[in-house]
Amino acid sequence: MGLSHSSVLLESHLDGVNLQARGKVRDVYNLGDKLAIVATDRISAFDYVLQTGIPGKGRVLTQLSIFWFNFFRDVVPTHFLTANVSDYPSPLPGYASQLEGRSMLVKRAEMIDIECVARGYLSGSGWKEYQASRSVCGIPLPAGLTESSRLPEPVFTPAIKAHSGHDENVSFETVANRVGSDLAGRLRDLTLEIYNRGARYAETRGIIIADTKFEFGFAGGELILADEVLTPDSSRFWPMETYQPGGAQPSYDKQYVRDYLESIRWNKQPPAPALPDEVAARTGEKYRDAFRVLTGTEL
Hints:
Layout: E1 18-22, E2 26-30, E3 34-39, E4 44-45, E5 48-49, H1 57-71, E6 80-82, H2 96-99, E7 103-107, E8 110-111, E9 116-121, H3 124-133, E10 135-136, E11 139-140, E12 150-156, E13 159-161, E14 167-169, H4 172-179, H5 181-204, E15 207-219, E16 222-226, E17 235-239, H6 255-263, H7 277-295
Antiparallel strand pairs: 1-2, 2-3, 3-7, 4-5, 6-7, 8-15, 9-12, 9-15, 10-11, 13-14, 15-16, 15-17
């Protein structure tokens, strides 16, 4: 695609619009009962935002989330309203150069403070937990599994933000105590239904979705799917053709960046390092590859 570092958007600047939050990746603007969400090209790893942006990353995250919001519209209501900048309220259309392709107008929702994680394969923190206890989030798993093994069936392994800022895996009972057993059950069932449908579709495109996280909230009293959906930032995507359990897998996600940071022995303390141009460019290619393979279209 030939995206250059000069095209990287690290921060949006919309004068006269109330900036509600600047997250690790997204800038969120308050429009009353709606929000404008701008996906920048920032990238985080090990809970820190790196100094280097990834060309085209914000567009991939936005367009892939829109693809999935439409894909799941018969399963669960979502916060997505439109990505047509000309339909945004004033003065946003005047900032089309910053917003086009990388923004969404969404319903404001009261978010539920639970990371709703679905795992179909044993990787990441789940693999570490399994090695110690032969379980993940209190769910016992069979003996003899290896790193990247496919699980007998997908499991709901929720997480919450600990005081350190890191996600902490918790049991279903912990979730039920926080939000009530009825809502906890709805979150679990929806998480697994969305994951299963998405994973089955992705397999037809040659991609394994090893695990992912969803976020839900309430808008107008209705439980809705919000934030991002099945992107390389929120999921592990593995090529089916190279899948081989027993170790780490090649991936379409930001594992490439994590591996680089491990190779330079960064102590995972601020300040976060910059990435070499070739690592940023290769990561951008992986994000765009994921979009192309899953949707069958070029960004």
